[in-house]
Every structure is written in structure tokens, then in C-alpha cells.
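Intended use. Records such as the Sulfatase N-terminal domain-containing protein entry shown here are meant for training and evaluating sequence-to-structure methods. They are not intended to support clinical decisions.
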Amino acid sequence: MIAHRQPFVRPFLLAILVVSTLASKILHLFQHAGSIPARLMAVYFPTFFIQEVLLFAATWFFLQKFTGLRCIVGLIIVPATAFLTFCLCSSQLSFYFVTGSEVRWDAVTSVGTDAEGRKLMLSGLKPFLGSACILLIMSWVFTRVCSAVFDQWLSALFGFHSHGDMHEEASIDDQKTVTRRKRPVRLWTLIGFVGTLVLLLVRPKVPYSHMSGAIPFTFLEALVSSSPAVSQPVENAFPLPELISEGHWKAPDGYFKGWSPYSDSGATSLPDWASGPLPAGFERWSQKKQHVGGADTNGETGIEMNTTAKKNYYDPVHDPLRITNLDRKLLEPLAQAFKDHHVPITHVVLVMMESARKDVFPFKSGSHLHREILNSYKSLDPDMIHQLNANLSHLTPIAEILTGESGGFPKTRRDTESSLWKDTAEAGMGGLNINGVLTGASLSFKSEIMNHCGIWPLPVDWMDEITSDIYQPCIMQVLDLFNQFKQRSAAGPSRDHLERNWTSIFVQAVTGIFADQNILNDHLGFEKKIYSEDISQEGAKHYHDDMEEINYFGYSEREVYPYMEDAIDDAIKKNERLFLSHFTSTTHHPWALPKGVRSEQYFSDENLMGKHEDMNSYLNSVRFVDAWLGEMLGLLDKKGISNETLVVFVGDHGQAFQEDSPVTGCYGNGHISNFRVPLVFRHPLLPKIQITANATSLSIIPTILDLLVQTKSLNENDSGIALNLMNEYEGQSLIRPYKATDDGRQAWNFNIISPGGEMVSVGSAAVPYRLILPLTQEFEFVFSNLDTDPDEVNLLRGWSVEDLVSQVRSVYGDKAGQWVAEAEKVGKWWVGETKRLYNHAE
């Protein structure tokens, strides 16, 4: 045998390659096994290993020579290929053990180019090393087996003179005998090759082409691939033309500009405020104009036409999906409150909470997670249940106050309770709590764009929004526009808060470098930004030697408390109005707590280091951030501005754990737990109102502007601008009855699944259905009914929309099946339309 005469390293290299490649493929097939009928999996099984067989044969071929060019090439290529495959398979195995999901090599290469992203990847070093050790041991065990199998098979197949099988001195009869032994091998190989080739020709492309990929080829393909291939071409025309025909058009009315999709007008009148220089974000109002239709030359009448034909921009008049509720009256409790007393809004604070799931804001008795905690214990007597629930009652007390929702646990006192924030609002007051809200993306910075700018994120991987056109003015830029119209007296700043200038600041305790967030925030219009890079400098105003980094991104929120206090003090001192945006971070993986903060044990001891360890850590971080929100609100009380500050609390996305779905985390995971988020508009002088709407955080900016106008918190000029701009945004105002439908059209919702360019979720405010729409051929269509399956335990799946529609019809009826067909069309149209609005180049 060749293996006996060669150094051990050569067959060991072959074994590493074989074991790593096959382990990767077996895991890959296992993750897709449930999506394909078993009979088809069995029939097409040989076609899944074509690339692997070719790779093994080439590797064996290069390992046979000890001298010459083939030996030199083999010594370079084979070790490099084996090492790469070994590392990739170790990464794949460790990623699966941690998340239950499959590695996307294109995403890995993107994250790996970012310094902070590499820190994130290194957080999985332990499972990677564990997987690597397992692969090395298996390779060592199977070294001689692999060498023997390939020596016998490939020597017989190609007629090579194996060092162990043939000698130059062998007799002709002996050589004939060996040749006869090789004939069956060649025959069966030929039969297998022809059979596999036939199967390869007749099998469907989707999903089997994706299942046939082998590392390292899939990795190398990701390196040279610029973007994922779209499964079907996106059509430019709106797919439901009967809903936007001329008979459905609406005439202009006051600030409402009308609605006539795909009409021939192509032009709109410019508002008065667009006559002069405008801030960044208002480019579509400040482009060169040309009067048509006999308009006057002074620009006050007539129709304005955009002369930059190649520049796409958003136009609410021509948006087939836009549904506005600004024609509806205010919610009655709000209308009465505004009539009875003044509700001043001098300052606005927007708190974007990392991984904030709605079901832990607040945490409730009887919820899915509560049941998971109880079920982790093998036995619970009444006393233990009482003690456990008493402990859980202290998990989210601030969230209970903010939302007005009770956790449903018996209240118990603790020694630390005296330090918690006490609400100063009168009974029945405190603001709006919105139930049913979904985030627009499970990637934080895409959500940041949606929350601050009132636009849909870009459905491509990662943050191309930074180099694309943000197609609406962000709230910071709107406030900057207000500043430009302020009239200042020679005596100095006005004491009237309506005449004060706005200033904007962004504050977080973690890095601003990851995914170029610092560049994004410049793009969105923040005047000042504070990140961990700023507060960690020895020259920083509030620097101290014992600053503690709690994770690979930075510090706990408490480190930015003095900077937030400074921002408020500066605004008060300068007689300015403050827009403060704060992003929490402790609830991000690995959910570590600062030293001195006690970690509670919510799950059973027996399971804490197993299935429930991550969720337990997450709940502890939720408790910490809940207390931090109280400290923030206490700061507003301390500075005497609580009763004139609107505070918006919103989650950037949720966070799936093993308790929720087989796949954990947000990456490539469309589970509903990644998208349900809290949304609260807090003001002590607003009535406490519970609102249920299948909305998204797209409504935040229209609601803020509507509140500023309705509370008379803007001067006359700014109010006119706000009323005009409210009619430009796609989202509806949440202080008015939400429109789930309008003249037969549905209020469609879209949710981008991290990293952004592979899957989107399509939903509607009119129905409880949800469709996961794949944008590549590597993912399935998935349907859920949130009414009957709110935790998405029983999902319907299909590799084609036709297959999924058939399943949905059989389970939920024809109307549900029709909705899926329409949702698929509208979702594909939306993807293309959003890229057009961003002027995004493929």
C-alpha cells in the first residue's frame, strides 16, 4: 500500500481534507433535511457529493509524487487547501453549535474586514477550538482508512502503478491478474458516474444546487461574489394594478398632496419653505427647478418640475403603498387632554434599546418565557413558585411603569427598591404604549435609520445606506431646518421656547466604529456624537482609571450618564431645545454585567449551564437596562425638564434564543422573536393610552412631528413645515386611529432579516399573516399565522411560492393562500423600489 511507504503527513493531509469536507457537507444536508421530502433526498443524494469527489481525487493525485513539478505543486496546494477547509469546517460547526444556523461566507468576509467585527467573531473562539480538536482527532483516526480507500479505488480507476501493487519485475500474468481486478472498479465507477450525471441533469436547480456546494469552493465563491443573485428579476411595475387605477386616486386637500400612482403629472408644487438654501437631507426640494404650464416666474405659483431626471427620489403622491391617516381625528383621550391643559414638548429623547424584545418589556406572568422558566425545574412546590415569581417581579419594574402593563406577579419589596426611579406622573397619565409593533430590520443600524429618518432600510447586506441616498430628511435635519427659519432679536436668545434653536446629540457607551456607525451618524445629521472611543481617552472630561469594558464593544450605559447630564445642562444654559438619541448596549451578546451587579438565577441550577444559560444571562442584562432607563428618567427629573420632554423608547430588534426557535440570534433568522419590539411615547402630561396596531417603527417620525404640532410646541412657521413634512413620510401617525386598509389596499409592512440582502419578511396591518420572502435561491419561503401561532412554532415552508400557496390554502383557506401570492409579488416589487429610492447601484 502507498500509505505504508509515504510519510504519515501525506495521508494525514488527505484525511484532514476528507473528514473536514464530509463533516461540513453532512451538517449542510442535515440543516436542509426537513425541507425536502425524504424520497427526493435519497434519489438525489449522490449528486450532492460531486464537488467533494473531484476535490479528493485531485488531492490524491498530487500526493502520489515525491519529486518533480507535481510534487512541488502538491506541497503548495494540498496543505493550503486542507488547512483552509479544516478552518472553515471548524467555523461552520462552532457556528451551528452556538446558533443552530448556517454560516454565510459572504457575511463572514464582510465582518472580518472590520476591526470591531473581528472582536465579535473572536467571541466564538472556544467552540471553534473545540470543533477543531474533534476534527483533528477524527482525521488521525481515519488516516489509514482514507489512504487505503483512495489508493485502491483511484489506482484501479486511472491505471496508476501503485508502489505497493505493481513492480517492474512483475510477470505479465501477474499484471493481467491485477488488470482483471481493476475492471469491476472501473465499471462500477462508470455506472455511478453516468447515473449521477443523469440525476444532475434532471434534478431541479432549487434547492439542490445550493445543497451541492462544497467548502472550500463555496467560500472562494463568496470572496469573488459582489452580491447574492436574486432568485427572480424584480419587476418595475406595481404588481396589483387594479388597486391603484385612476378610480382610486385622491385629490389634494390642504397639506395632503393627493395620491395618483403612475400618473402622468410627474410634478408637484414646492412648499414655501423650500424657496431658499436647505440643510442636508432636503436635496430633492433644493434641486434646480423649471416652471411649466405658464407658471409665474416668481416661484410662488405654478408647477415645479425636477430637471435632474436620473436622480430618483421619494414622492408620496406616486407611492402605490402609501396610506395616510392624517385625515383622521386625534384619539379622543389625546384631543381631550390637549383641550384641557397645555402639554409642552421642549426636548425630545429617543432611546433605542438593543435587543429589546416586546415580551420582556415588561416581563409577564404566563408568557412563553415565563413558562420556559417554570419548565426548567423538575419539580416546583408552591413555596418555590412564590419565591421564583417574587424574584421575577423585580425584573422589569420600570418597563411596567412606562407601558402601563402589569407583569402580573405578586409585588414584594427589596432593600434596593428605594433607589429605583419613582414616576411623578399623575394616575392615568404617562403617554402612549403601542402593542403590535415590528422593527424594520434585525440589524441595529438599519433600524437606526428607520427610527430616525422614517424610511425603510435598504434590502442589501450590511450598511450600503452609508454610501447611498437617504431618501427622506431625518428628524435631526428637520430640526435643523426649523433652526434656519428662526428669527433672533438683537437682545439675544429668545426666552420663548418656541423660538429656541434645536441641537442634536447621539450618545452610546460602546464603539462607534463597528460597521462605520460613526460615518452613518454623520450622514443622518447628528451635530455631536459620543462613543466609547471618546469617553475612553485619558483626556475625556469624565474619564476615570477604573472604567470597565463589559464586552468586546465597550462599556455599560452608566459610563455615559455624566455626558448626558452635560448635554442637558448645556441645552438649558444655552437656552436650546435638545434632541438626544441614546443607544443602549448591555443587552447585546455576551450579555455581561458590570462588576458589582448581581446576577440572578431565573432558570433551574440543572439547566443553567446548558440550554438556558444564554437566556438567563440575557434576562439579567434586561434587568440592568431596565434600571438604567429609570436612572435616565431620574436625570430628567433632577434637571427639572421631565414635564417638557417627550421620551421615545423603541427596540432596535428582538433576540431569538433556543427557548424560541431552533435557530438562535438575529443573523439569517426570520423568527418573530427577532422583530417584536416595544414602542412607548413617554410624557408625564399625556394620558396613558394602550394602542394596538400592526405597525412598524416607520411611524416614529410622523408621530413625533404630529405631537409637536398638536401640543403647540412649534411656532407658526415650524408648524407649517411639520404639517407639510408629515405628509411626505410613508408611516402613519400613532396619535390617530391607524388605517389597516384604505380603499381595498393593505398597509404593508416589511422587515429586513440580517444581514439584509437574503431574506425579507412581508406582513400587513390588515391580517395576522407573515411571509418570509427569500431573495436568493438558498432559502425557503416560510408562512406563519400569528393569530393561531403567535410564537411561530408550527411554520409552513416551501421552496417555491406555488408550493407554499398550496400548503397555506389547504390549512388556512383560499383567502390566506391568495394573500401569500400577493405578498410575494408586493415584496419583490418593494425590494426593487427601495433600491431605486436609495439610488443604490447593484
